[in-house]
Design brief:
Elements (H helix, E strand, L loop, with lengths): L2 H12 L12 E2 L2 E6 L10 E5 L9 E8 L4 E8 L11 H4 L5 H4 L11 E10 L4 E4 L8 H27 L4 H16 L5 H5 E3 L1 E2 L2 E2 L2 E5 L2 E9 L5 E6 L5 H18 L5 E7 L4 H8 L4 E5 L11
Parallel strand pairs: 13-14, 14-15
Antiparallel strand pairs: 1-2, 2-3, 3-4, 4-5, 5-6, 6-7, 8-12, 9-10, 11-12, 12-13
């Protein structure tokens, strides 16, 4: 089954209520291919995902076709698992010019709004066939579908290879795994940390909203307020991206907060695992921003 046949069969079956997937391809370009119409009941958004061996659909990032049946839209996306705590993700350089699905669909997407649009197609169902066209109405050929998918798979292969090298590095392996839990650790230990002495977490109607604070350009790792002034503080973890990516991301979120809340009194904090000369130079030109380094100490003592 080639891609055109895969998509055509997939789109037709999405309308039928049949959840079986045994007939679909399982591999492409060394990536695992998984097709899903739902578990137990038909999904509102059936999908076809392409994952590297070390990344799971349930917790990671990967190219994925999402079929929004109610909107008649098939979207090839830079996919990110909903609620995922997977550290590795699409680099800012890949997705910085892409629309969030929530924005592209005017918040009409029932799920996966935090993934990013790579290519979008209109799906039109005829009496005995299904046609795929671009937003401008131009029909999409089988060759174009192949080209679109191969392009994002090539990007993904490059990104995954980069992440695997980082993970296998003796110098970074500990930090790589630790940072998966770092954001939760900071939140759970807020009051006894240096952050808790100067900043307050934000709650709305008794619910914590500081962590993964939503914006229309992505999610802020932690948004807090200064105790003394009430000014906003954007906190971003450096994670596994470059210093330039981290600084650019921090600046964008600070700009968004400034415009959204009509204030110029916004500061930023980057939390990193080690000294970074490039990051140090960038901070010299950003007086409203600081860098915090985290340290972890382990000790053993005999239980008596």
């Amino acid at each position: 089954m080639n891609l055109s046949e895969h998509l055509s069969t997939f789109l037709k079956q999405s309308k039928s209520g049949d959840l079986k997937t045994a007939q679909y391809p399982r591999e492409r370009n060394g990536l695992t291919v998984k097709t899903s119409f739902g578990m137990g009941a038909p999904a509102r958004v059936p999908w076809i995902a392409y994952t590297a061996p070390e990344i799971k659909v349930s917790n990671g990032f990967y190219p994925v076709y999402l079929f929004y049946k109610s909107l008649g839209k098939l979207v090839l996306t830079y996919g990110i698992t909903e609620g995922s705590d997977h550290l590795a993700s699409w680099p800012e350089a890949v997705i910085e010019d892409c629309q969030l699905i929530s924005s592209y669909t005017n918040n009409e997407a029932p799920r996966y709004g935090d993934s990013y649009v790579c290519k979008a197609y209109n799906v039109t169902e005829g009496s005995d066939s299904i046609s795929i066209s671009r937003d401008d109405g131009a029909p999409v050929s089988s060759e174009e579908l192949e080209t679109d998918l191969d392009a994002i798979l090539k990007e993904y292969a490059s990104v995954v290879e980069m992440e695997l090298k980082r993970e296998d590095s003796a110098d970074s392996k500990g930090l790589f795994y630790l940072e998966k839990q770092l954001e939760d650790f900071i939140i759970h230990n807020w009051e006894v940390s240096e952050f808790g002495q100067s900043y307050d977490l934000i709650y709305e109607n008794g619910e914590l909203t500081s962590q993964q604070f939503p914006t229309d350009i992505g999610r802020i790792d932690i948004l807090a307020k200064e105790k003394s002034t009430g000014a906003f503080v954007v906190i971003e973890l450096k994670r596994n991206q470059t210093s330039d990516d981290t600084v650019g991301q921090l600046a964008r979120y600070m700009g968004w907060i400034s415009e959204k809340y009509e204030t110029t009194n916004v500061s930023g904090i980057i939390v990193a695992g080690s000294y970074d000369r490039k990051l140090d130079y960038a901070m010299k030109m950003l007086p409203a921003c600081k860098v915090f380094l985290y340290k972890v100490n382990f000790s053993l003592e005999e239980f008596r």
